[in-house]
TrEMBL record:
Enzyme class: oxidoreductase
Pfam families (UniProt xref): 2OG-FeII_Oxy, DIOX_N
Name under which the protein is recorded: gibberellin 2beta-dioxygenase
Keywords assigned by UniProt, alphabetized: Dioxygenase, Iron, Metal-binding, Oxidoreductase
InterPro entries registered for this protein in UniProt: DIOX_N, IPNS-like_FE2OG_OXY, IPNS-like_sf, Iron_ascorbate_oxido_reductase, Oxoglu/Fe-dep_dioxygenase_dom
Length: 342
């Protein structure tokens, strides 16, 4: 069922002998060339916020909860939410359905008619060097694609429920962050639409080269907010204080992170932080993410008297990211949109 990583990545995974001689297939060298995964200094638990106070708390508790959300978004770019209104039973159903669809044979998954063409993705087809490889597969599904299907009716209904409840949570959090940044909180409901928001179901198979290959290469998210449900295997890492730290899984929590669009829209108040997923030599990892995105024509207007970023549409941002990935093998992102007037 696994994608053919070893077959496709062979020329990038292993060092070639000088004078253009190559190793025979049964004698592949063990030491990869020019790259090793950066060491992690510590494992930490992200800030944990009980978001039930936003609805059921006193005025003082609500305000404290909002302040905690804004503080974590400024200092970490990541936080965890508990008592978020999405039941553990539903999350477990999502995990089981996800496992089931990824257990299908590779040929069936890669040609799946469950979702629109191109929804199933694996690896890093644009990789030009070892550090750009990703040892993972995913179903990247627009919200409008999530509908009943005769082959996967349970999957579709479970995805729809997860997406709808994640969507509601994302709007609530985005409105809090807008309020604390002094921006209009109705921006998201007016500009974020279902045909540009999406779910991504991820699987990270066991990897025979865990010290040389990422599960998902370092990146920032190209959205406003991401809501992540992950299993307890671990592997998510992010940059804090200029060093990589490992995120300790919390079975009660969902992970929320700030995307590029929120960093630009808030004029850098909130941080879109680089993160990655590490591979595991023996255990597979699963996660599901909801991405809150605006319509393609929505304009991201940087706030403040000295905007750090020029205005740009979501369409322009996406096109630039795609061009960079195709040309360079990686995303450049927000640095392309800096306001050079300042």
């Amino acid at each position: 069922m696994d994608p053919p990583f070893n077959e496709i990545y062979k020329t990038l995974l292993y060092k070639q002998i000088t004078n253009s001689r190559t190793f025979p297939d049964n004698n592949i060298p063990e030491i990869p060339y020019g790259f090793s995964v950066t060491a992690v200094f510590e494992e930490v638990e992200l800030p944990v916020i009980d978001v039930s106070y936003l609805i059921n708390g006193t005025e003082k508790e609500r305000e404290k909860c909002k302040e905690d959300i804004a503080k974590a978004s400024k200092e970490w770019g990541f936080f965890q939410v508990i008592n978020h209104g999405i039941s553990m039973d539903m999350l477990e159903r999502m995990r089981q359905e996800q496992i089931r669809v990824f257990r299908e044979p590779f040929e069936k998954k890669s040609k799946s008619e469950t979702f629109s063409a191109g929804s199933y993705r694996w690896g890093a087809p644009s990789a030009t060097c070892l550090r750009q490889l990703s040892w993972s597969e995913a179903f990247h599904v627009p919200m409008t694609d999530i509908s009943d299907n005769k082959d996967f009716t349970t999957l579709s209904s479970t995805m729809e429920k997860f997406a709808s409840e994640s969507e509601a949570l994302a709007y609530t959090l985005a409105e809090v962050l807008a309020e604390k940044a002094g921006r209009k909180s109705n921006f998201f409901k007016e500009n974020c639409v279902r045909n540009t928001c999406y779910l991504r179901m991820n699987r990270y198979p066991p990897c025979p080269n865990p010290s040389e290959v990422y599960g998902l290469m370092p990146h920032t998210d190209s959205d406003f907010l991401t809501i992540l449900y992950q299993d307890q295997v671990g592997g998510l890492q992010l940059i804090k204080d200029n060093k990589w730290i490992a995120v300790k899984p919390n079975p009660r929590a969902l992970i929320v992170n700030i995307g590029d669009l929120f960093q630009a829209w808030s004029n850098g108040i909130y941080k879109s932080v680089e993160h990655r997923v590490m591979t595991n030599p023996t255990v597979e990892r699963f996660s599901t993410a909801y991405f809150l995105c605006p319509s393609y024509d929505a304009v991201i207007e940087c706030s403040g008297d000295r905007p750090a970023y020029r205005n740009f549409s979501f369409r322009e941002f996406r096109q630039q990211v795609q061009e960079d990935v195709k040309k360079l093998g990686f995303k450049v992102g927000l640095p392309r949109f800096l306001n050079l007037l300042y």
